[in-house]
Amino acid sequence: MPDLSDESGSRVQLAYETVREAVLSRVLKPGERVTVRPFTESLGISPTPVKAALAILEREGFLVAKQNSGFFVAELTLADMRDIYELRSAVDALAARDVARTRPAELLDRLPQLLAGQYEALANDDTEAYAELDREFHALIWSGSRNRRLHAIADLLGAQLRLGQNVTITVPGRPQASLDEHREIVDAVLAGDTSAAEQATRRHVAQVIRALENVL
Q1: Structural domain range at position 100
Q2: Quick check: is 2 in a domain?
Q3: Residue 14 covered by a domain
Q4: Distance CA 213, CA 191 (A)
């Protein structure tokens, strides 16, 4: 969502960010009705900016509008998640190729640290930390791209995927395989091999899609 600088826009942005986080953190669960009043009371604003925020979130795919019933948190199907991951494949591959070419120093230092953290979280059976580090891993690669429009698209796709159940972690062997795939991406980026970085990223996303299809 663009930054809205006027007072009215700021209230819409506040409502947008608050409702979006409630959806992503599952305070509001998939299929649950989203009502305006709790947000007007907690934020101290009128219903108008909250309703505007809900309309934006509906356009972005976080909510669905039902006639005469209001807004509900979206429930992603396997087809929805496959569509999002296919788009993610293109976006992630572009970002990986870009950072392998430019090789930003901070990114080169941080990527191996995130990978090590994921291995440690998996060894400790801490799936929550593992998932958070996974999101940070991909977000870091997006942030390293010089394509400014890519950032907003990748963030939106990543957030939409959080609406779906985090099922790939439950697939036997999948987390370990995912880390091996992340290692290939990191190695390619560190080596500055743009083609290998792109191919490793596409293979990684393809394997995630396959895991989802096998489970769902």
Answers
A1: 78-215
A2: no
A3: yes
A4: 33
At 61, give phi and psi (nearest 5°): 95, 5
Q: Which helix (H) or strand (E) holds 2?
A: none
Identify the bridge partners of residue 34 per DSSP, sorted by sequence position.
71
Q: Which amino acid is at 16?
A: Y
User: Quick one: tokens of 111?
Assistant: 């990527």
Query: How much helix, strand and coil, in percent to the nearest 5, is found in the chain?
Result: 70, 5, 25
Condensed to tens digits (0 to 9), the pLDDT of residues 130-183 reads: 989 999 999 999 999 999 899 999 989 988 888 876 667 767 778 889 999 999
Pick left, alpha or beta for residue 73 (phi over 0 → left; psi -120 to 50 → alpha; otherwise beta): beta
From the list 190, 207, 210, 189, the residue with the least C-alpha distance to 198 is 189
**Are 164 and 199 contained in the same domain?**
yes
1 is a domain residue: no
Residue 53 pLDDT: 97
pLDDT at 163: 80
**Would you state the torsion angle of the CA atoms of residues 60, 66, 71, 74, taken in this order, to the nearest 10 degrees?**
-50
**Does 7 have pLDDT greater than 60?**
no
Distance between CA 107 and CA 104 in Å, rounded? 5
pLDDT in tens, 107-118: 999 999 999 999
Looking at the structure, tell me whether residues 88 and 176 fall in a common domain. yes
Q: What's the token pair of residue 58?
A: 């509906």
**In a 10 Å sphere around its CB, with 0-12 CB exposed, 13-18 middle and 19+ buried, how is residue 64 labelled?**
middle
Q: What is the pTM of this model?
A: 0.82
